[in-house]
Amino acid sequence: MQAVMNSCNEPVLLEARGITKHFGAVTALEEVSLQLLAGEVLGVVGDNGAGKSTLMKVLSGLIRPSGGELLFQGQPIYFHSPRDAHRAGIEMVYQDLALAGNMPIFENIYLGREPGRNVAGLTVVDRAKARRLATEHLDRLHIQVTSVDQNVEDLSGGQRQAVAIARATAFDARVVIMDEPTAALAIKEVGKVLDLIKRLKDHGVGVILISHRMDDVFYVCDRVMAIFRGRNFAESPLKDTTRNEVIGWIMGTKGHSAALAHDKVH
Ligand SMILES: Nc1ncnc2c1ncn2[C@@H]1O[C@H](COP(=O)(O)OP(=O)(O)O)[C@@H](O)[C@H]1O
Ligand SMILES: [Mg+2]
């Protein structure tokens, strides 16, 4: 397929154009647009209620937008369910909730979509193969666990998050969307999850990271965009902005005038 380029001649993987979402009388998103490149980590920031999660649910097929369109490599796509998004290679990392604590790691990675073996026309789950593939996949992502037979409930928060990311990327994901993946983690585990995100990027995966932690955004993202009250507010390559500027965007302020006005108050 012909690659679709942005204005800087970079290949665009996923694009949202003018996405609007109403929940009854509430307008959660209004004409929001976003572009994600292959191998790019895009940070999405915004205050509580800004519409970040709603946008990600639209991108991952969990909810249907009221208006606007999605394009994957330049082709319009329509999702009726997360399964459709999964088929397109778009995965959302859900936190612990999506993992089954009382089941081993390898089963969690392949839960509900185990590699099968065809026996007399029936698909039989091939546990040995699932175990081997899971081990290889975790190795590829440098995720360390004692054994893929370990139950998820015996893992630390960071390891569980890593397993959730492994699950999301087990089937050639092109786009991985993460909504606050480090929010519930101990500080020493945060770095490991962020390094894992960098590794996805090295594999050419496009990552969208929602985070309110500036340390995370500035460690791992290539670009950051802010949503304010359901609309695009500002965006920038990370190298051309600062933490203070991004924090200002979250609060709905831009540029020096806002900082000066703030200084005058104090
Ligand atoms: N299922 C829903 N039904 C009604 N309102 C919703 C629903 N989901 C989100 N909203 C509203 O949409 C707005 C954006 O929410 P959300 O996308 O969760 O924001 P964020 O993730 O940035 O905190 C909020 O006003 C929220 O209350
Ligand atoms: Mg949210």
Describe this structure in words.
The structure is a single chain. This protein is α/β, with parallel strands linked by helices and about 270 residues long. The chain has a domain at about 10-100 and about 170-265: P-loop containing nucleotide triphosphate hydrolases (Rossmann fold). The chain has helices at about 50-60, 80-85, 105-110, 125-140, 155-170, 185-200, 215-220, 245-250, 255-265; strands at about 10-25, 25-35, 40-45, 65-70, 75, 90-95, 115-120, 120-125, 175-180, 205-210, 225-230, 230-235. Helix 5 (about 155-170) runs parallel beside helix 6. It is globular, with a radius of gyration of 20 Å. The N and C termini lie far apart (about 55 Å). The model is unreliable at about 260-265 (pLDDT under 50). Magnesium ion binds near residues 52 and 53. Adenosine-5'-diphosphate binds next to strand 2 and helix 1.
